[in-house]
Every structure is written in C-alpha cells, then in structure tokens.
Amino acid sequence: MTPDNPPPEGVLPPGMDRRGFLRGVAGGTAAVALASLLPAGCGRDYPQARADRAELQGLTAKEYAVARAAAEALLVDVPVDPGLVVRRLDRELALVGDPVLADMKTVLGLVEHMTPLGGRLRRFTALPLERRRAYLAGWRDSRFNLRRGAYNALRGFVAFFAFADDATRPLTGFGGPWPERFQVPAYPVDYGEVA
Amino acid sequence: MIIQGTNRRADVHDRADVVVVGTGAGGGTLAAYLAERGWDVVMLDRGGFHRAEDFTQREEDAMGGFNGRRGMDATTDNAIFFNYAEAIGGSTVHYWGDSFRTPADRLQRWRSEHGLEWMTPAELDPHFAAIEEELGIHVTPEALFNENNRLVRQGCEALGIEGHPPPTARVDCIGCGWTQYGCAYNRKSSQTITTIPRVSKAGGRVYSDARAEVLLRDADGRAVGVTGSLLDRATARPRAAFRVDAPFVVVAGGALGTAELLLRNLDDTTVGRRLYINPHYFVWADMGREIDNVTGLPCAYVVHGFRQVRRSAAGTYESGGYIMLANHQSPGVAAVMLGGQGAELTRRMGAYRRLGSLMSVIDEEHPGRVFLGEDGLRRADFRVRGVDQLKAVDFLRNAARIFLAAGAREVWIPDVHGTVVRNEAEVARIGIQSVQPNAQFCAGSHLLGTAPLGTNADDSFAGPTGEAHRVPGLYVADGAALPGSVSVDPSLSIMGVARWLAAGLHERAGRAGA
Fold first, then answer.
1. How many domains would you assign to chain B?
2. Which of B78, B172, B349 is nearest residue A22 as measured by Cβ atoms?
3. B187 chain-A contacts, CB cut-off 8 A
4. Mutate to test the interface with B, among A106, A135, A161, A178 (most CBs of B within 10 A)
5. Co-location of B56 and B157 in the same domain
6. Least confident residue range of A11-20, B56-65, B92-101, B353-362
7. Do residue A149 and residue B294 have CB atoms under 8 angstroms apart?
8. What residues make up the domain containing B366?
9. Cβ B184–A178 below 8 Å, yes or no?
10. What's the confidence (pLDDT) of residue A1?
11. Nearest to A148 among B333, B336, B439 (CB)
C-alpha cells in the first residue's frame, strides 16, 4: 500500500454508503471525530483565514483552510485566487444555510481527516500540493458513491466560483453578459402597483 | 398589485376567494384564469420579484438571486443537481421556453394507470391553444439557431435521426443566449411578465418573499388559508408574518416546494413518494474549431428520434426512452459539468468556444422521493437505476454518434474515467460505468409527481379535479400534480393542466358565467 494507492474501501464505516453520506451526517461526524486524533502536521491552528483576512460567515477557519487547500489543488493555471473562490463559497453557504451548509461542513471535515485511508500520516491541509491532488483524485475515482459525491460537491463549488469570475474570460473566450456590452431595451411590462 | 415581502416590516392579514402558493407555470396560469373571471386572488411565493433589469446574466447573481437553494440543491448523495427557481414566476424565470403539448401516449398512460379520464387531447387542446396564444408560442425560427444547434441537426440528418425545432415561448427574441438566467429584455414569456401582471391588474395581490408555512384548516378539516413569514430577500430571514384566509387553497410551489409544504402540514403518505426529474446527462464535443454555442437559443433543435423505448420481442430493453436537447452553458456551470481537475479542467475550459453539447431528457421509469430529514429539512433521493441507466448509456452513445457525424474531433463523456470517443468503434467504450451515481454530473430540472392526481386515494394525493383526497378545499396545480414524467419539457403540460383545473374550480364554485 502506497500513500496514493488507497486500501480497499471496506474500511469505511459499514452502511455509510447505503445511507448516503451527505444525509448521514452523524456517521460523518463520528468519522471526523475519530480521525481528528491525527497529528495536524503543521500545527492544530488553521491560520489561513486570518492570513487571507477572510471574514468568514458560514465556514470555520479550519473549514476555510481545507476548502482553500482543495481549491489550490483543483485549479491549475486558472487566474483566480483560490482564497477568493473559497470566500465566495463561504458567503453562499452562509446564505443558503442548512442542509447545504451542514453537508459541506461534513465534506470538508472528512476530506481533512480521512487521509489515513490512503496511508497518509498528515491531514489534508498539511500535504504538499501534488499529494493533495492525488488524494482528491482518489476520492474522485473511489468505488464508493459517498466519496465521489463528496468530491463532486467540493470540486463543483470550486470550479463554479472560479470560472464564474471575469478573470477567466481570456482562458475561455467568453465575451461576458450582453447587458454589459450592448444596449438593447427591455420590452415594457405593466405590473400595476408594485410596493 | 405586487407586494414585495422584503419591504414589509409589519405583519399582514389578507383575505381572498383563493390563495395560490407558488407563482410558476401552474400557479400563475391558474391564478390568472380565476382573477380574470372575477375571483379575488392572493398569490404567495417564497422567492423574490425580479424585473428585466435585475437579470444581469452574471452567474452568481442568477444562482444566488432566484435559483432554488441558491443553485446548490442536490440529492442526498450529491449525485443529482436540482435545477429550479424560487422567484415570482417560478421556474419559468429560467426555463428555456420549450413548449410541447403533452404527448398523446402520455395522456393515455395517465388515463389508464391513474384513472384521469379527462386527460385527453380533446379536453386539453383548447387550454393549450389558449396558452400558446397568450405566451406567443411558436416554432423556433432559423434565426435563433446557433452553430451548435446546426451541428446537431446536421448530425441527425446524416444519421437519419428525427429532430425538430421546438415550439418556444418568446416574442421577438434577440438571441442573447442567456435565457437560463432570466430574460433581461422581457422577450421570453415567463409567468413573471405574462400571467403575474394579469393577476395584478385584475385586482389580485401577489406577495413575493412570502414563505408559506402552515396550512390553516377549520374544525371540519377543510383548508381555509395559509400563514407564513415575509422574508428579507438578502438573508432569507423572517421580517414579519402573514396570514391569508381563503375558502380555496391551491398549492403550486413546484414538486419540491409543494411536497415540503404538504409534508410539514399533513400526515399523508402519498406526498413525496414519487419524484420524477427527467435526468439530464451531458455530452460535449470538441469540434476542432471555434463555434458559436453562446448566442441564440440554447436549444433550437430537439432530437425526438429516441423518445419511444424499443424492446425486443422478449421485452428486453434495446434502445430509446429519451429525447436530446442541444445545450449550452455559461462558463461557471460548464466548469462544473465538464469534470476534470487541475490541468485537465483548465484544458477543457480552454476549449470552451470549440464545444458543442447535447443533454438528455430521460423518460425515467424509477422515480425518487422527497422527504423531511431527521433534522426537519426537506431532502430528496433519486437514483438512476435499472433500465434508466441503460437509457442513459444509450443517450451518451447516440449523442456521441451525432457529433461524430457532424465532424467532431473528439467527444467527451465527462465522467470520472475521462472517457473520450473519436470514432464509431470507440463508442462502445461508453458503458454503465459512466452513469453510476457521481460518476459524472447529472441534473434534474423537470421536477414532477410529488403530489399526484389520481383516482386511487392510496396512491395519489389529489383527485381528478385537483382537490386533495383527504383535505377539502385544498388543491394542487403544478408539476407536483402530474402523475409522472411527461417525456418532454413539462412546462406547457403543467400550464394546460392548471388551466383545466382552474376552469373546473370556477365552474364547480358556481361562478361560471358570473
């Protein structure tokens, strides 16, 4: 077993996949609690949010650090600051609230603490960039729906908030919204009184 | 009158002949019908009121502004994204405007399986015709084809596959391409600019930012009104309370919203038992040159050749069971759909202007469900399984063939396996592994069936008139009321059924001819 060659996933808590892990918050929380006994690698504090001057609304500093570390790994040569991507995610999660927020918190906790499944002895945020990419690819390619689902949630949010940014237009060739480029009047609509 | 709940600080108590919860395809159609025939109508919607100038075509504005759960809603296992709107106008704010009458074979199924004898073309066609007239529905003209649409048509013609431009609900569309983010020019005939102003001008009150929470019932159990909260639009936090008293209560909050309200208020096992979504899988084709898949209609061409399931003499599935829609997506959403991470994601997004795309509307046989979780929050499960997985694979393969016939350099199946197809021989690479849960992005935007009509009270929420089997005075009139998948975009079906239900309610209430 090598660090980037995860063991068979039967080691996951039995029944977790059947329940649907994003629904099984209790199972996820238990796994996080167990795995959080791991050494933090670079220390138990998560200073990234403070360093980024992120005024978090939904995520904790720890969750911000995990999401940011994931964004750094998932985005390559994308001209958007990973911290900005995660701050947008944080804002939206705070506004939408549960169950999306609670599910995402579970995902981030598991990503951070389930590194031993791949034989890694450090938490996700303490892994070097390439090891983080390989670790996330392991989630993507997992035989277990729950891990792929967690990966897709994290990857999807990062990809969306990165490529919704105007700075990616040179990469995609997207010209931007019409209302910012052309003057076309909207047809009038009479709504009657609007209060 | 449009009353924006987000602007209210004081509690509201209103009375009406009918209160309609939900302002989308079903609620808007029903409410306008009644309001213009003398009914005093109150409408409620938990979403905001947005006008053309609010539709910036910016992805974050749209997702946060009017998409359900800010564009972040999904099944419990995150395998399927739910695409619906919460706004005055409901999901017609972001729908593509494809407007098909309910296929006759589907009406036949609903008559035979659910006892809905009135669901005949003869009964519904007058309502469809009236709506088509009101919304300016017409066959999509060639001027709204972009190159992706033309390529799909070219591939279909080369392979002898049936396809057509769809009837579309818009007037003088300028083809900006971003209908999904709300029409910035009032050219798409959403309920927001059609039925809602009609209700307002007929004396109705339309409350935005108004979350219905409690169905009021009298001592006999009859529905007599609704209470709830007026929400601050920016934070979704309650600002004030409202109460609406009415002898008729119509729930039309969409398949998820209607189910949630009913589940919170009634002990009725028929609610949320079935959820149909028409699963959308996506195929992308690198055409090897820049194409225009940004302007025009996302879908000016629909592939119908696979709508019917073909089975062997022994009854084994062989092919079909879906239609295909030409597809385009804004960059942020495309990045989600395309899959890939790191340099691979960057490479795929670098091809954005070269990509053609098709999406499936799978006519599923295995529905999901909507329920309240242990935390009291509304959740939904849906698993594409059994024959529906075979349909999905068949879609992926035939979509790949269409693009190859149109000259694609390579076709991407955006699964976790990175499946790429460059010729017919490689099409066989596409298999069941591509459609396992969370193996690729999948979405559902045709959400139906969670409070269905039917004659069997053990299997349906409401009877053929739309009135709940167990709660007099309570009606359902939206996608939740349809008994199953329509197999095509359901918006016109929802409107037509809602208008038929409204006509029946009007007549039974003794107000016809009043």
1. 2
2. B78
3. 187
4. A178
5. no
6. A11-20
7. no
8. 142-170+278-444
9. yes
10. 30
11. B439
Task: Give the span between the Cα atoms of A48 and A7, in whole angstroms.
Answer: 31
* Pair B256, B285 in one domain: no
Q: Which ipTM value was assigned to this complex?
A: 0.94
B292 with B157, same domain: the answer is yes
List the single residue in A100, A157, A195 with the smallest CB-CB distance to B3.
A195
- The predicted model scores a pTM of 0.93
- CA distances from residue A62 to A101, A130, A159, B87, B362 in whole angstroms, order as listed: 15, 21, 21, 34, 41
More confident residue, A24 or B113: B113
Query: Is A140 within 8 Å of B63 when comparing Cβ atoms?
Result: no
B424 lies in the same domain as B455? no
Strand partners, B238: B231
Whole-number average pLDDT of chain B: 97
In tens, the pLDDT along B106-155 reads 999 999 999 999 999 999 999 999 999 999 999 999 999 999 999 999 99
Q: Do B335 and A193 touch (CB under 8 A)?
A: no
What are the pLDDT digits (tens) for A49-68?
A: 999 999 999 999 999 999 99
Eight-class DSSP state of A38: S
> A194 in a domain, yes or no?
no
Cβ-based neighbours of B157, under 8 Å, separated by 6 or more: none
Is the pLDDT at B101 greater than 80, yes or no?
A: yes
Confidence band, pLDDT 50/70/90 cuts, at residue A13: very low
Nearest to B58 by CA among B174, B172, B175, B180: B180
Enumerate residues 6+ apart whose C-beta is below 8 A from A53: none
Tokens at residue A8, please?
């068979």
CB B210 within 8 A of CB B233: no
Q: Does B261 lie in the same domain as B382?
A: no
Does residue B362 contact residue B319 with C-beta atoms inside 8 Å?
no
Residue in chain A closest to B61 (alpha carbons) equals A164
Mark yes or no for CB contact A184/B174 under 8 Å: yes
Band of pLDDT at residue B510, cut at 50, 70 and 90: confident
Domain span including residue A34: 12-180
Candidates B438, B440, B442: best to mutate against A (most CBs of A within 10 A) is: B438
Q: Quote the minimal CA–CA distance from B119 to chain A in Å.
A: 33
Residues of A in contact with B69 (CB under 8 A): 96, 100
CB contact (8 A) between residue B184 and residue A156: no
What mean pLDDT do residues A67-95 have?
A: 97
pLDDT of the residue at A118:
72
Q: Is the dihedral of CA B308, B312, B313, B314 positive or negative?
A: negative
A162 contacts A85 by C-beta, under 8 angstroms:
yes
- Closest Cα of chain B to A89: distance in Å? 10
In Å, how far is B206's CA from the nearest CA of chain A?
9
Best CA proximity match to B86, nearest among B3, B177, B172, B21: B21
